[in-house]
Predict the 3D structure of the following.
Amino acid sequence: MSRPSAYLAGPIAGCSYAGATDWRLAAQSDLARLGITAYSPLRCKTHLSGVAVLDSGHNPEHPLCSPQAIFARDRFDVERVDALFVNLLGATHVSIGTVMEIAWAHVWRKPVVVVMEPSGNVHDGHAMLMQCWGFRAETVETGLELLAAILLPDAQRESEPIEPAPALPELVEPAQRYAERNGVMLPVLVVTPQEFKALLEYSHTIPTGKVIGKRWKAYQRKYKNDPAEVADLNNWAIGEYTRESETHPGMIDMTWYAPEYSAEASA
């Protein structure tokens, strides 16, 4: 029996990068413990982390961000998964893309779990749209429980024990200055070559095990054809899960740094 899967739908345009990704990353982590694979429309798009407000026209020259690419991959994801999980909490305007994904899922006979407020959501009340979902919850946690109850045999819903996160190197605190990385000004983080090498690389995704203090490195260019460019810290950034989110309860904020070697290492 293949591993069950779900697509994580919900508004992106008008949201911050963290606002659009944090709940999806948390959901992916929770579902993975239950043996459910979750697909996010923002996977492999960490280059958008410096965008203050996402919109439908962000970075159209990127191979994953053109209108054609967004449409093609999102439709492919909805078609191949077993169910759709839709988070509409706090939506300030109708998400046309999300509505299309709900309609695709209905046509392809995929169960749809929608999370939204009891009343007042801009997506609520439309006679046709409401016929496209079979399950509704008021919180993400309750919605994920519904999703698991739909996709998993009852005996399989017991989650596996969570492995403790591996010990991470203690890095020097960020310096009080900024440096440019991929067109975005980031606070500088001073590291030694050994500390930088020890960090796991997540250049095309973000770690799902969200632990405050966890750090990783990400290559900021498309390809790694030139060894000299790979060795240059100007082409890298370091991500960190930094603190409990004040605006999104239950979520963890993420911060990006521009790494630089210490003066002793550079000498």
About this structure: Confidence is low (pLDDT under 50) at residues 158-169.
